[in-house]
Specification:
The protein is of the alpha/beta class. The protein has helices spanning 15-23, 49-57, 70-78, 95-99, 121-127, 163-186, 219-228, 294-300; strands at residues 4-9, 27-32, 37-39, 44-46, 61-62, 83-87, 105-109, 117-118, 132-139, 148-156, 202-203, 235-241, 244-256, 271-273, 278-286, 292-293. β6, α4 (95-99) and β7 form a beta-alpha-beta unit.
Length: 310
């Protein structure tokens, strides 16, 4: 028999898992998501990506401001779900909620736990220079991503990948993994294993204060910093334009075997020297403008040596 599930998620990353669970015949009793927020120039209320899909599927949507009240617990229990599936929901689940479904609450996390517990595992894995990451399904407890692990899928991180690229690769991988996990749970064959106590790292939320590019680092570290913050919040530097320094976000780059003083422009193709080696800018964005390829940018803002980026 398919499971009766509560699905809890908010951003685009969670959508493939919701769709896969529904497509594989599991009954989605309710979708819990964060409430709509004002967004865009008109500050119109914007439904979360998960709520948009839930409405399209005709599934009841719940947007509580807290799960810590007796009323919230009573409503949660009233759905009579076998289990809950949680994907980037954005709200802490207290113990009574975790205990409510008879089979438990299961979280999809975008890292190879116990590495990168916390809020920003995709960004941090790239920024740290990790060679691989993945997705894991774990049975939730009250700790921060400390629950027992059920299943995992690994994925190599290449130097060409931005955070958006990795997000878009992991999201469908996670949907498939959660479907397999819920299938095993349905058959009573889901095996859980304790997380290792060694190798624990925390993926702290990205702070905009970290976004400035430091050209005094090696080229590989600069590239991973840029790609780990692309497209949001975007790693930035200042470059000369019409006699003043303008802030520009660099969204995509590649390593080049050149050398020079850190921040020095080495040619007319936006090749910038780092402490060791250099990077060539491939895509960037000026404040208030759309992202553009380096060639397009240079047609409007020609930059030549000995210009410096800071």
């Amino acid at each position: 028999m398919p499971l009766r599930l509560i699905f809890m998620g908010t951003p685009e990353f969670a959508v493939p898992t919701l769709l896969e669970l529904a497509a594989h015949g599991h009954e989605i009793a309710a979708v819990y998501t964060r409430a709509a927020k004002p967004a865009g120039r008109g500050m119109k209320l914007q439904l979360s990506p998960v709520e948009q899909e839930a409405r399209r599927l005709g599934v009841p949507v719940v947007t509580p401001s807290t799960l810590k009240t007796p009323e919230a617990l009573e409503e949660f229990r009233a759905h009579e779900a076998d289990a809950a599936v949680v994907v980037a929901y954005g709200m802490i689940l207290p113990q009574p909620i975790l205990d409510a479904p008879p089979l438990g609450c299961f979280n999809l996390h975008a890292s190879l736990l116990p590495r990168w517990r916390g809020a920003a595992p995709i960004n941090r894995a790239i920024m740290a220079g990790d060679a691989e990451t993945g997705v894991m399904v774990m049975k939730m407890d009250v700790g921060l991503d400390t629950g027992d692990v059920a299943m995992a899928e690994r994925l190599a991180i290449t130097d060409a990948m931005t955070a958006l690229d990795l997000h878009n690769a992991l999201a469908p991988l996670g949907g498939d993994l959660m479907v397999r996990a819920m299938g095993a749970l349905e058959r009573g064959k889901l095996q859980l294993s304790k997380q290792s106590e060694t190798g624990v790292t925390y993926a702290a939320k990205i702070d905009k204060a970290e976004a400035r590019i430091d050209w005094n680092r090696p080229a590989h570290a600069v590239l991973r910093h840029i790609h780990g913050l692309s497209p949001f919040p975007g790693a930035w530097c200042e470059m000369p334009s019409e006699g003043e320094q303008v802030r520009v976000k660099i969204l995509r780059c590649q390593m080049i075997d050149r050398s020079g003083a850190p921040g020095e422009l080495l040619d007319e193709h936006l090749t910038v020297a780092c402490a060791q080696g250099a990077i060539r800018v491939l895509e960037l964005q000026r404040a208030g403008k759309q992202p553009m390829k380096a060639g397009e940018f240079l047609r409007g803002t020609p930059l030549k040596p000995p210009a410096r980026l800071t």
